[in-house]
Amino acid sequence: MERYILLNPGPVNLSERVRQALLRPDLCHREQEFKDLQNGIRRKLLEVYELDGEQWAAVLLTGSGTAAVEAMVTSLVPEQGHVLILENGVYGERMARIAELYGISYTALHHDWGEVIDLGRLKASLDQHPVSHVAVVHHETTTGRLNDLQAVADCCASRDVSLLVDGVSSFGAEAIHFADWNLAACAATANKCLHGVPGTSFVVLRRRALEHAKTARNLYLDLRTYLKHQDDSSTPFTQSAQIFYALNEALDELRDEGGWQQRRKSYRLKMDIVSEGLTGLEIAPLFPSQECSCVLNAFHLPRGVTYDALHDGLKEQGFVIYAGQGELAKTIFRISAMGATTADDLHRLIRKIAQLVTE
Ligand SMILES: *Cc1c(COP(=O)(O)O)cnc(C)c1O
């Protein structure tokens, strides 16, 4: 099969180093080798943001990013708690859907997709209706908007509210100030900015945050069950050794390459090539670059070109781009910098798009 350059926001192109890790020896999840592997990954996940294992813990789950988000929301909002969920895209709305399905007490602060979170409305809502948690998406992949978590955290700080962060498409590539932002937890996944394989996701949580949440709302996604077992070098359910191998290698690779700061720089470089190249073709970004994540940007479809035509034309040339969601599918397309792609790949992409739009 042809090898594609993936410009979708995960699953990503693997480096050769990570791909080879999948071929390591078969493992039983009850043996010491697996325990060492799991303990190592949990430690390395904390090291990405230099977190202290006394106060923080990484909990590994089997499932995609949504499993980690669902585990976070359902395990950390206590029965007597209330969560204010900030919506400005698909993933904020998904957290509200999770709260609704489980009967968790919540309020949604809705914004249209792509809108800047209105801090005035946030403060007014917090004053009117005190809450235990605010849940927010860091990088709203729907549009590429990087929500200003510093500003959100500042609104929460004086009100003793802790944050639940969907960091699925920012963990490993954007600044996350766990302590300063008063995070209770951040949910993320192996196969986005960390460059691992899909199938495992995780929640980095403040150990103290679990003490308030005493009752489990589900069996498979209960973070307290996982934490208890994983602190004991064990696992409540079968985990995938192969996916763990790949994540472990991907975390070593991230460290060897200079950590999240360096990954951020390399993503920025790639996104700059794309946005400058497209601007030159009169294909405009959805937002100014200072409002965008380094991870993914959205662009208006060029005049007279449908997404399908652009997608199919580029796929023939070996590139997979990404559609907008919902109504945005008609007007935008998205390009992600995630994965083992190079600046050169993106220069080639721009040349191919130039050919397609000037044909
Ligand atoms: C990708 C993503 C998710 C989870 O998606 P899965 O398909 O379940 O991995 C959640 N939130 C954000 C912000 C994402 O980008």
Order of strands, main sheet, comes to 2-10-9-8-5-3-4
Q: What is the helix content? A: 25-40%
> Any idea what the radius of gyration is?
20 Å
Can you count the helices? 11
- Return residue spans where pLDDT drops below 50 for at least 5 consecutive residues: none
Structural class label:
alpha/beta
Amount of beta strand: 15-25%
Q: Biggest sheet, open or closed, and with what strands and sense?
A: 7 strands, mixed
- Rounded mean pLDDT is 96
Oligomer: single chain
Number of strands: 14
CA-based shape: globular
Could you say which small molecules are bound to this protein?
Answer: pyridoxal-5'-phosphate
- Alpha carbon gap, first and last residue: 28 Å
Feature tags:
359 residues; alpha/beta; three-stranded antiparallel β-sheet; 11 helices; binds pyridoxal-5'-phosphate
Structure commentary:
Helix content is 39%, strand content 17%. It is built from 11 helices and 14 strands.
Outline of this structure?
Helix content is 39%, strand content 17%.
